[in-house]
Amino acid sequence: MTAPAAPAPFPSGFLIGASTAAHQIEGNNTASDWWSLENSGSALVKEPSLDAADSLHRWPDDLDLVAELGFDSYRFSIEWARIEPVPGRISAAMVQHYGRIIEGCRVRGIEPVVTLHHFTVPRWFQAAGSWTADDATERFLRYVDALRAILEPVRWAVTINEPNIAAVMSRFSTARKGDDVDAGHDLPGVPLPAPHGATTAGFIEAHHAATDLLHEQHPEMKVGWTVASQAIGSIPGGEDVAARWFDQVEGQFLRESTGDDFVGVQSYTRNVIGPDGAVRDDPEEDRTLTGWEYWPAALEQAVRDARRVVGDVPILVTENGIATDDDERRIDYTSAALAGLQRAMADGIDVRGYLHWSLLDNYEWGSYRPTFGLASWDPATFDRTAKPSARWLGAVARSPRLDPSP
């Protein structure tokens, strides 16, 4: 099979790289809430993360891979549970550890895109009420402030990853103070965040407070958060339901981005809604390893949906990819997604970059089976091996860029 041709050139300054998240690649994140869940015997978890890809120690290998492929940007997260394993006790060693990763990006010519919260929190924060606690924002700001020195070289910062998905999931775990954990307002296959729920409110308050603090400390930093797009469509009779779902699961979070420096858009597949809930008509054999529909056009819709809500706020594609063990299919998917992204940009939508999910095959919240990575790794030696899709996307990143000047 011949690989798809590279997409048309992107504008000068457009970022092309890959994304990861700390818990999913670092390994042995023992002070986090997810480590507790993984080792609790819960039926929700098929296997624990354990060593993961050992990126806690092998981060230089990851950065070398990013640079070797020709990517100019790398999104990764700082793990709060490592920075503050017990309340009020900041680990200077871990602060310096993440500072070395940021510096490692800079010396390799890589733009670091730093995420401060990517789903996991310290166990003590979870036990104290998580984002619904009265002092949740104060605690989050204490953690963010502890990173002040190492964030000085960072020009792109994500406060919170996918608060809309985290708000949905909070309803199906431990009941939170003030949250509506009754799923009675949902439709089959259409889970929603609790209307005006305390978790949603906690995320919004923490995001705005952290944004203000980061702007105060780092005036040149671009700050935003990321929102997971569902690329919601409808069949006849489902239009009103689809509009309601979009507003609750995306719209209310996108609206909070209208005053930000950018909004991160994350997209993988689409969801089709009928009058009685979600519908599926895609062949099961064509679905991805996560069971999602193969739908690369989702990214274009996600970007257009975000623009419709946030207006002229710049967009950064912070995640897009496919769980597959067929790497040619990954190239096909990514090529089609980038073509759709360029159509949206040609219509005047301000998109600043594309960060593929993920640099490495990683721990996908309960299982290693869904492989999203541009590179695999050996579970015994942890050696990284770039896949053909990585080389293909690297060639896109290295290709000449359009000069926006006349």
Question: Can you walk me through this structure?
Answer:
It is a single chain. The chain is 37% helix and 14% strand. The protein has helices at 22-25, 33-38, 55-69, 80-83, 92-107, 123-127, 136-146, 163-170, 198-217, 239-254, 298-310, 327-346, 388-398; strands at 15-19, 73-77, 111-115, 156-158, 222-224, 226-228, 232-234, 263-267, 271-274, 277-279, 315-320, 351-357, 375-377, 384-386. The strands form 3 sheets. It has a 9-stranded parallel β-sheet with strand order 5-4-3-2-1-12-11-8-6. The protein has a 3-stranded mixed β-sheet with strand order 7-9-10, with helices on one face. The chain has a two-stranded antiparallel ribbon with strand order 13-14. The longest helix has 20 residues, at 198-217. Residues 174-178 and 180-184 have low confidence and may be disordered.
In short:
This protein has 406 residues and is an alpha/beta fold.
Mean pLDDT: 93
Largest sheet: 9 strands, parallel
The CATH topology comes to TIM Barrel
Question: What is the CATH homology-level superfamily?
Answer: Glycosidases
Question: What's the CATH C level?
Answer: Alpha Beta
Radius of gyration: 20 Å
**How many angstroms does the end-to-end distance come to?**
39 Å
Low-confidence stretches: 174-178, 180-184
Q: Which second-level CATH architecture applies? A: Alpha-Beta Barrel
How big a fraction of the residues is strand?
A: 5-15%
Helicity level, as a percent range?
25-40%
